[in-house]
Amino acid sequence: xxxxxxxxxxxxxxxxxxxxxxxxxxxxxxxxxxxxxxxxxxxxxxxxxxxxxxxxxxxxxxxxxxxxxxxxxxxxxxxxxxxxxxxxxxxxxxxxxxxxxxxxxxxxxxxxxxxxxxxxxxxxxxxxxxxxxxxxxxxxxxxxxxxxxxxxxxxxxxxxxxxxxxxxxxxxxxxxxxxxxxxxxxxxxxxxxxxxxxxxxxx
Length: 203
Description:
By secondary structure, the chain is mainly alpha-helical.
């Protein structure tokens, strides 16, 4: 999870200025929150304490805001034009960076909310899961007591963004269905607009 957050921060920092919030302090704040989270829980960032939980939620909120702003700025540039739209290579790289950042944030969101969070999942198995993984639907596919890890949520985020619909993990509750639907729409908008504009530039 910490590695995914670091990657998301670096990706956002590498974006062109036209689609990146100008305030560098915002990225620094995210880094400080992540550092505080690692210091508070140097293990897998899943300790069941109120400060750790608050820091985790704050970190996710800051990343979500940063990624949402970058996505909105990218869509604005694609619609109205800008220096970024003069080069298909730069546009594809920037669009791909925003797309990957979005998927990491959504993976973190699934990881944080499913079954009450990572700590709740570790200490008890929810009677009714929010997200149904294949190993939960068919216990013969995994060892007893199997629990989804962060990489499972990362895979969920990327496959949902690519297929624009659930693949192997089924949303069972309203928040999961709405969140996966929003992610699919964002992914469709980014990929559709970026590819269309890049093709237009090449022609």
